[in-house]
């Protein structure tokens, strides 16, 4: 494998590029484009050939001594890199080039690639929590049941961000909930063992925020908790009502949902040999029981630096100066 290095003289990083990520499809020669952004920012970076398989790029990144791995891709690409990074001292820099870019939005990254590249040198960093199920890591949520069936539709949506595309995805979700049979699960949290019949279950790394338009937006990335949501047996009409409640930002304590707050471990058993699980949009087939664990502050991510707070002026001093 050929490793190319640009001539920047500042921060050292290894760049993993996915030329098939959603937004990258609109940029010809995406790998060269990203390389040019690092050269323009004078950041020392190593690149594998972007045309080789993603797994081999990640292997090269992990074998390098670069302290930062920059990922030019979408949520799936980020998660593929995180799987390899866990337990290492390397930092993650996200260069958002996917369809959703969920984590990039949550940590406040600019969607402009050139600005995101400059943050590799100019930004700060923060530790965020990471979830794990049966040895597979996830950063946002892990879904069972009907939502996991949306993976194929999500692939068809890749590269499109129109309002109609989002509407198609919502319609597909409603159809999946209507057609997917209820699962018989047992959810164990601490000493509690609870039978659950549901068509959709979500394990989230930290809880979601409420508010108009805040759909699946987490209030914190480092609160140190897992939260379980399960859809109770309801009619399609009540599912539509729940979706409206989500859009209005008043849903976390909805009676149509079972909600459980967990400190660090959840165990889910199922009457199936294999369970389809969707971790941050990527589908897996896992053998139950599913053991979910939280790894608090396990991933260090490059983020924009916080601006120092401006001290309020002293009103009395202002009055004194005016009166003098």
Structure summarized in a few sentences:
It is built from nine helices and 17 strands.
Shape: elongated
Total of helices: 9
Q: Give start-end ranges of low-pLDDT stretches.
A: 155-166, 315-324
Determine the fraction of residues in helical runs and give it as a percent range.
Answer: 25-40%
Head-to-tail CA distance between termini? 74 Å
Mean pLDDT: 82
Binned strand content: 25-35%
Largest sheet: 6 strands, antiparallel
Rounded radius of gyration (Å): 22 Å
Strand order of the largest sheet: 7-6-17-14-9-10
Secondary-structure element sequence? EEHEHEHEHHEEEHHEEEEHEEEEEH
Molecular structure report:
- By secondary structure, this protein is α+β, with helices and mostly antiparallel strands.
- It has 9 helices and 17 strands.
- It has helices at about 30-40, 55-65, 75-85, 100-105, 115-120, 150-155, 165-180, 235-250, 315-324; strands at about 5, 15, 45-50, 70-75, 90-95, 125-135, 135-140, 140-145, 185-190, 190-200, 200-205, 225-230, 255-260, 265-270, 275-280, 280-285, 290-305.
- The strands form 3 sheets. The protein has a 6-stranded antiparallel sheet with strand order 7-6-17-14-9-10. Strands 13-12-11-8-15-16 form a 6-stranded antiparallel sheet, with no helix packed on it. The protein has a 5-stranded mixed sheet with strand order 1-3-2-4-5, with helices on both faces.
- Helix 2 packs across helix 3 (about 75-85).
- The radius of gyration is 22 Å and the shape is elongated.
- Mean pLDDT is about 80; it is low at about 155-165 and about 315-324.
